[in-house]
Every structure is written in structure tokens, then in C-alpha cells.
């Protein structure tokens, strides 16, 4: 077998670059790694650093290199600088604190820290500050402390930053590193000063006690900064004519922390800050970096008002700067102070809004955040207008934030309910797919609560839906509204919108279109289906059509829709008398409650009907006493069961619509009453499984030319029976065959006594009030046998 | 603090990658990929900042510059001044230029370890260490000399006293 010699690093790099495909590259690397492994095992130790260097290179490209970890240790332990250099680099790249192996270099680091070659000490410190774990830091803290006060500034500056890292890993070590700071601040070497300021900043951020302690160095910091600012051009650390801008920025940050909420310190800084703010050369980036930091510091400490105004104005100027970087930083800075100095930032609102239109996505994102923060009750209309137009054209990754931002602002500051509805509507139309899930619930809640706007809302939503059925949240809200307020939609006139003539067929067709569209989510279909059901009681005709559609979905693959369809179908077939009551208008849902959907609607209907039931029950018992009829006709003198069984239990039983029981024998309807066009008809159902139960639906229709208003129907039965009346679907029976009023009577007849029923009607018709009391004749025997 | 310093070419191939926080190998590669993806989408005349990204959420930013065939990217958190980091990047590039004499991508490719050494003299533990180009270059030269002398005396231990530098 021919031994292929391993490559030098340069050659390896060349070969990798020469590979034409990923697979080729992998092959080259795998081959070389095999060599490296072999060399690690039994190669020349002097060559080891070259092998590791190669390994580190392939590691950077993403290939596994963990087998080099032990080699790092060996190289670090070597006495040669060349070995240590690569070894420590490898340690930084391959070892991290999550692997146990990392602890093994602690001893080597310790040795290297205390020997005299500063290049080696530098390596050790660098590695320690990059990957030193808490454990390592604890072990080596005293070594590092010793190095802080050595003569070599090279080692000292590295030791200082290592100390910062150690404090981050092991906060208790602050105790060791706090004392030397004061002395270090007297040094002149910029690297040491930079590190020291960083160290002090870290200490202050971690401990209020340290913060208090270091307030006393504020004068010294001010002095250092003043020297930097007033010194002429110096070659040493200046960038574009600004003396060591990095150190200036770092000092300004520390001053900010020390001066925050502290009058005395703030006062000490005021003059200097003013000086920097007015004298810094802003033609180059370095000067601007210092100026921005100054502005942030001014705004954060207890500065004099004049200085604050100056600062905000500087930012305002920067918003108009040609340099995009400057504009970006200006927006960021303004965002930071929008809470604390709201009115000052408000003055720049027009410019901020301009930045929304910037093609640079970074800038428009910042401008969006700031714009949203600037919306208040006085500018909400104008701002929303701007944000809406931004929403129409903004990059996709900002759409969700923009949409939810507008909705939130609308919720907080909406001047009128109508404006609020319009705004949400517009957002749903523009960016419907990007809104959060609760937007639908929020909008339906909002609309439901604004009774005066029901007609307006349903019209707007209908028009929007007719144009576009693809935006799911919009479709869901529109379907819900059409279902709830379909009657208002058809009524024809509403002052707030253009006259809209809508035919029943159109409405049904639209909902059917939603149901059938492939763009509609299952949840959306659920909304549409329920809406159709509701319309079956709100429209005059169309019941058959609706029933057809509903029954189609009885075999839908989606389980949720199938269940609904089957239940609704059953509602048509066997519980038709209850349909109106069940599909009544929704009561106002509690804010923050569960998502409003079909199931929740039904249970809320239950609760609503229960409360109505309780009141009509007491009326019924009063009526019995009053009418004093039908006493003791039964042979079985059993004590009548209590007249108030718990409503909750019985209604749940009532609404427990079974899926497919055998159809009960149908009992013919009975025309019970007729007067001047008002007709009362009774339909009967005896549910299987409960032979004692009889359900009667009283339906009042009006073929006359005048409405019947204030319609109340009461009933009475013999003592051995139990009677419950549900709340009627309404109190007005509209003229000309308008929507009938229905009411459900529930009669328990445990003794199977012959049924007798008296009705009492009161209403207004043709301007007169009418009262009628009569017994219902010709009750079919099937109602009680 | 600086979370990472990345240099990759126009095709996303990493040339230098230095992380100052412990990330797993997979995460590191993912960061490189995502950073490249974001940065390469940017137009030429936009600002040099990108906010709110993978490595840590909205607190972090990318500060980047496009030099010929290379992207230099500094991933920092909110405690760093954006404009100051831009200057730091500039110092870094100028130092590379000085050390390699008109640096180009090939230099970075062939001498990746040297780039790491230079970087280590400027940024340590995610914090800015030294920004004076002359100091940095002086140190690098001294270290290179040390290596060269060892190569010449292969096997012999280096003499300590000769290599303690005054500052």
C-alpha cells in the first residue's frame, strides 16, 4: 500500500479550493483527516502544530474536529511558543465549557500565566477570557489578579478584560477585582484605561453597592474625557481626527450609568457633556459615534432641561442626515427615549413617518417601531392613515408587526367605535393573513357590543366579502356578522353607507361560495356553515336551500364540519321547533373569554335561555293560580312533582341532540288560533326515550297589513303536568307574512293523563291592545298517549 | 458585548469565524448560514445594520460591511455602539492591510491562523481590547519573530530572558 504523505496546510487549502463539488471537497478532507489522526497517534511531536492547524482549517468549514481536542492540550503544555499558539487557538475553537475536557487546560494556563514571557501570558489570558468556564475562573482568579499590577501594560490590559469575563461567569469574584480599579484609572495607557472603564462598568451593572462606590470616580472620568476631547490631533489613538473614540464612547457609557438618578454626579458631568455635544466634529463617523453616545447619556441622567433640548434636537438633525447609518442610529436612539421624553420625541414625528417610506428595510423597521410608539389619542387618525399605507406596501417580514401594531393602537386610542371597526376592517382587507389569531374574536366582540353599528358593519363586511373571499380572518368575521345580522343586511337602508340592495339568494350564494372555496380553512367553513344555519331563521325563505347545503356537509371529511352539519341537520329534521330559539342573536360575550365559535355559541345560548326560563317559570305558576283551571281531573292522585326542576339539567338534556335515533312518529300540526290575520299554530314532538315529555312549538304568523307588537303568549296545563316555557324568539310578529315568532313549550306528563292546554295571548294590533284566553281544542291523542 | 465576528465570501464560504459565546457546532454553522442569507440580500446603498436575529432575538444586531469579495460581520448585543463598531471594523481591516500588505481574500484563506492572531490582539472575550494599530502590529511582529526563532532552533528550548519586551 502506498503511503500518501500528508499535506502541508497551504497545499491542503489549495486542494480544497480545487475541489469542484461538495463531495470532492469532503473526500479530500476525509483523507487528510485520516492522516492527521495517524499523525496525532504516532507522528513527530514537532509537527503536531501543523497538523492541528490543518484540522482547525477544516473545522472552520464545518467538518468535525473533536478528535483534535487532546492535541490542543498537548500543544499547550509544550514549551514552544509555536506550539502554544496553535494549541490555544485550537482550545478556543474546539473546547467549550460544556465538555469536561476543557478543565484539563486549567493547569497549563496557570503555569503560563505565571511564567515571564508576555506573549505566552497573553495567549493564556486570551483563551481564558474566551472559553473559561466558571470553575476555571474560580481556580485562576488570584493568578489574574496578580497580573493586574505588573509593569507590562500589554499583559495588564489583557488581564483586566479577563477579569471582566471572570466576573460574568462568577459574580462573587467582583470582590477581588473591585479594589484595583481606582489605581488603574490613573494609568495613561489607553488599552489599560479602556479595559478598566469596561471593568468598572461591569461591576456597577452587577451591584448597586459597586455603583455607589464608583460614583466617586466621576470627576476623574470627566477629566480623562475632557483631556481626550481637547487634545489636538494625536497620531496615537485617533480616528479621523477624533482622539480614541472607543475610549470616549466607553467613558460616556459609564458616566451614563453613574449619573442616572443621581443629581450630584449628573451635575458634575453637565458642562463636559455640553462641551462634547457642541464641539464634536460630525463630518466623520468617529465623531458621530461619540456624539450619539453623548446624546444618550444626556437623556439618561439628570441633566438640565436646556441640555436635553439640545440632545433631542441633535437627534432630529440626524434624522435628516444623508448617511443612512446616521439615520438608523438616530431612530434607534429616539426609540430608547420615547417613553421617558415622549413629547420631545413627538416633535420629530413627521420625519419619523418619512422614514417609513425608506427603501432600506432596516430603516423602515426602526421607523415602524418608533411610529407605533408615537401614536397617541390626538394623532391616532393621522398616524393610522400613514401606517395603513405603509402596510399596503411594506416588506412581508414587517407586515405582521405592522398589522398587529395598528390593531393595538386602534384598540387603545380609537376615537369612535365606527372608526375602530373601519380600521380593523381595512387591516383585515389589506393584510388579513398576517394578523394574530385573536383579531377575529376581538372584532366580533367589538361589533357585537356596538348595537348601533350592526347594520353598518354587516354591510361593509358583506361588500368586502363579495370582493374577496381569500383573506381568512376577514371571511370569518364577515360570515359571523352575516349570520348574526343577516336580517339587517336585507333591510335595505342604513344611513351610514351607500344604499345596498341585497337579495337573499345573493347572500346564500356568497356563503355557499365560501364553503366550497379551496382557499377556505376548515375553521372558516365552520363559520360559514353556522352563519347559514342562523340565516335559516333570519331570512324569509331559503330554508330548503340551506338545509340542502347543510346536509351535504354531513358527509364532509373534516370531523368538525361533519359534526356541525349532522347536528344542524337534526335541528332541521326533528327539532325544528327549537331552531329559532337556538339560533337567536348572540348575547354579548365576556371579554377575554374563550374563542367564540359554534360550540361556545350553543352553550352561551343555553345560559341565556336559562335565565329567561327562570323568569317565565314564575309567571307560569302565577298564571296557574290566577286561572284556577283544570284541577284534579286525573284518577291517580299522585302529588304533583315540584314545578321547578333545575333548568340547567333539563335544558342540557333538551339540547342533547342525538346523531341518528329512529325518527319518532310525527304528530300533525294544529291551528290553534286565528284573529285578523294573526295565526297561532302548534307543532308537537315527543322525543323517543322520554315518553313523558312533549315539546310544543307555538308559531305566530301575521298575514295582516299591520305589525303585531308586544306579543306575549302564556300557557297553563292541569296540575299533574309540568310546564316550562322558553323565551320567545321575539315580541313582534311583522306584517305581511314577516318572520314568525316562535316559542317552545315543554310539558312533562308522567302520568300519561290526557293533555289539556289553555293559552293566554296579549298583544297590540291595529292600534288596539288585545287579550285572548282560550283552551286549545282538538289536541291529537298522540300528544299524551 | 461582541457575540461573534464572521468573515465570509460572496458565496457564503466562511473565511474567519470567531465566536465569543459557547455555541454548539451545529448552531455555529447555522449562524453563519443565516447571517450570510440576511446580509447577501441587502442592496448596495443601504445602512450597515441589521436587527433582530437568530442568535439571541431582538437584542442583537448585525453590523456588516462589504469589501470586494468579502463580507465582514460583527454580531453584537445592544450594549455596543453601532457606529463605534463600524470604526472598529475599519481598524481591523486596516491592520490586516498592514500585516499582509494589501490584503486580499487569498491572504485570509491561506493564513487563517494569522488573522485569528491579529483579531485576538483587538478583541478579547467579546470586548474591545486595543484599537491602536501600531501597538497591534508591533505585538504581531514580535510574536512572529518568536515563532521564527523557534523554528530555527527546532528542539532547543527557547531562551526566556531574551524575549521579555518592554512597553
From TrEMBL, chain B:
Pfam families: Clat_adaptor_s. Residues 1-146 form the AP complex mu/sigma subunit domain. GO terms for cellular component: AP-3 adaptor complex; cytoplasmic vesicle membrane; Golgi apparatus. GO terms for biological process: Golgi to vacuole transport; intracellular protein transport. Gene3D superfamilies: 3.30.450.60. It is a peripheral membrane protein. The keyword Hydrolase does not apply. It is found in: Cytoplasmic vesicle membrane; Golgi apparatus. Keywords: Cytoplasmic vesicle, Golgi apparatus, Membrane, Protein transport, Transport. Part of the AP-3 complex, an adaptor-related complex which is not clathrin-associated. The complex is associated with the Golgi region as well as more peripheral structures. It facilitates the budding of vesicles from the Golgi membrane and may be directly involved in trafficking to lysosomes. In concert with the BLOC-1 complex, AP-3 is required to target cargos into vesicles assembled at cell bodies for delivery into neurites and nerve terminals. Belongs to the adaptor complexes small subunit family. This is AP complex subunit sigma. It comes from Suricata suricatta (Meerkat).
